[in-house]
Amino acid sequence: MPVDPYILLLLGTVGLAALVPARGTAAHAVSGAATAAIALLFFLYGARLSTHEALAGLKHWRLHVTVLACTFLVFPLLGLAARGLVPVLLTPGLYTGLLFLTLVPSTIQSSIAFTSLARGNVPAAICAGSFSSLVGIVLTPLLAAALLGNSGGGFSADSLLKIVLQLLVPFLAGQVLRRWIGGFITRHKRVLGLVDRGSILLVVYTAFSEGMVQGIWHQVSPARLGALLVVEAALLAVMLALTWYGGRALGFGREDRIAIQFAGSKKSLASGLPMAGVLFGAHASLAVLPLMLFHQMQLMVCAVIARRRARDPERPEVSPGTAAAPETAVGTATHPG
Question: Alpha carbon of 44 to those of 137, 199, 231: distances in Å?
Fold first, then answer.
């Protein structure tokens, strides 16, 4: 199974932070640059999200409510249940990262890509991912405040204020200015995509540099990392099964179930890393490790599932109380990752 090249860049950035961590004045400069990068990242998110597309997607509200429930209700409940694995399998620090993983929004780009490959409802996946990212800007910090408390490395009302100033305000500014800069963003989508990824790499370097300086990596052994991978594999398997068979139980057709499975079982590295940098500070390196591992795992597993779904024979499914009919996509739209 292929490894996402961007994951290799992330691992290289972690290695750089381990060998040459930012210290002293350099650490302050890098931290300030990371703060600016996070604000720019969410400004671009806001400028890219089409309000018209989002409103059009409301026509398929049952699907979107299902995805949001999986992302912000079922995932966190499973995360809370994993508390019983401490300290047998997970350290308190790794569990905090695992619980944070369950609170972040769904992905956009990869959900769209896998839904398209599997011949699912692509417009629904676009809107579901967009809604999840939008809701997550507000809901993820609130859930973190409620469920993590002080275990998040000093999580407080000040952290919530930082979230508002660094994430929500730039996002809203991007939405407001979209009518004037939307064309520019569309024309330079590839270049701005590099800005996105570069910003995240800077956030990762800052977080792991702080972790190295604080000596946080002495808390993690290879055995604990192996246990974390097993726990995350089980978490992903449960969510993939629940979204697929739960979608059928709720009466969704094949195309909608594909969108629900890929949007409802995945977590966004692009949204989660900046949020962790704001919420956890010097503890962010350990907190984002479960998210980074889960991200690569979900890509590999979902790639296999999407290829299998693409080979499924065309056979319309019958929703309870309705006549058999092929699924139709809701509208047409595109959304950058």
Answer: 14, 11, 34
